[in-house]
């Protein structure tokens, strides 16, 4: 049985004061929800403060990115070594990183290597563009992205994958739960080819893209979908709590 996971990707939102206010607003109700792994991914600068606010709670922390070197002359970058001890998870290969910061499958692959080495659990994001979906290339694209990101990795014991069709992110146009389930089954098959059925069946694969309190239930009742990576809705306390509560009820 895979424990469902709901991760909130706050992206480049919240000042330190706003981040702590949001955590204070959700932490008690979020903490007591059982049967779902709950992960908050605030901006880097808020991580240490939120870690303190969450001390002793069941809510976990993730970062939104890392650089692939451990240390050195890389002005402005954050290394995985700096994060281990602060958070458990790190979002890698998000489509916004690929689109605005030129991240390729090769770069994402290097980041997966260093994240795993530092003891972090990657939340590896993959997903097709609108034109790729329309050209029925979804399977080809996600398979290429999974193979690319995991190249040279022998057995990723700590790995979460988030299938996020790019056309669904922040658009209010989510994939249908049935289509997401089919694509996630394809991603699981790719994992199975790489690492065997055991690891493929253990690895959690999330859906992401315009997840809200109104649609989460239909996603998490799908057999292949193990939770969600939530962007916009994770910044609204009531909405996010409802998403996590419904996920617990659904599984
Ligand atoms: P969204 O973002 O929920 O706002 O669509 C999801 C994501 O980018 O992870």
Mind explaining what this structure looks like?
The chain is an alpha/beta fold and about 250 residues long. The chain has one domain (about 5-250): Aldolase class I (TIM Barrel, Alpha-Beta Barrel), CATH 3.20.20.70. The chain has eleven helices and eight strands. It has helices at about 15-30, 45-55, 80-85, 95-100, 105-115, 130-135, 140-150, 175-195, 195-200, 215-220, 235-250; strands spanning about 5-10, 35-40, 60-65, 90, 120-125, 160-165, 205-210, 225-230. The chain has an eight-stranded parallel β-barrel with strand order 1-2-3-4-5-6-7-8, surrounded by five helices. α1 runs parallel beside α11 (about 235-250) and α7 (about 140-150) crosses α8. The N and C termini lie close together (about 10 Å). The mean pLDDT is about 95. Bound molecules: 2-phosphoglycolic acid. The site of 2-phosphoglycolic acid has 13 residues, from β8.
Q: What are the segments in which pLDDT stays under 50 over at least 5 consecutive residues?
A: none
DSSP strand count: 8
Lateral strand order in the biggest sheet = 1-2-3-4-5-6-7-8
Under the CATH scheme, which class?
Alpha Beta
What is the terminal-to-terminal distance?
10 Å
CATH architecture: Alpha-Beta Barrel
What is the approximate shape?
globular
The whole-angstrom Rg is 17 Å
Number of helices: 11
CATH homologous superfamily heading = Aldolase class I
């Amino acid at each position: 049985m895979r424990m469902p996971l709901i991760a909130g990707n706050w992206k480049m939102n919240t000042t330190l004061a706003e981040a702590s206010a949001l955590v204070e607003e959700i932490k008690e109700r979020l903490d007591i929800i059982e049967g779902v792994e709950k992960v908050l991914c605030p901006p880097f600068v808020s991580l240490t403060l939120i870690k303190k606010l969450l001390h002793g709670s069941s809510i976990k922390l993730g970062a939104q990115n890392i650089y692939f070197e451990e240390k050195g002359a890389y002005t402005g970058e954050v290394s995985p070594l700096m994060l281990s001890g602060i958070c458990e998870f790190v979002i890698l290969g998000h489509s916004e990183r690929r689109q605005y910061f030129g991240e390729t499958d090769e770069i994402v692959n290097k980041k997966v290597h260093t994240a795993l080495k530092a003891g972090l659990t990657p939340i590896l994001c993959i997903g097709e563009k609108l034109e790729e979906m329309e050209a029925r290339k979804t399977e080809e694209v996600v398979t290429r992205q999974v193979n690319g990101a995991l190249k040279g990795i022998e057995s990723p014991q700590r790995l979460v994958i988030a299938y996020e069709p790019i056309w669904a992110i922040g658009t209010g146009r989510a994939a249908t739960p049935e289509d997401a389930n089919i694509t996630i089954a394809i991603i699981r098959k790719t994992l199975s080819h790489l690492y065997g059925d055991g690891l493929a069946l253990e690895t959690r694969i999330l859906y992401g893209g315009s997840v809200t309190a109104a649609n989460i239930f239909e996603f998490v009742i799908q057999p292949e979908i193990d939770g969600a990576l939530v962007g916009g809705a994770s910044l609204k306390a009531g909405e996010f709590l409802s998403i996590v509560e419904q996920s617990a009820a659904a599984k």
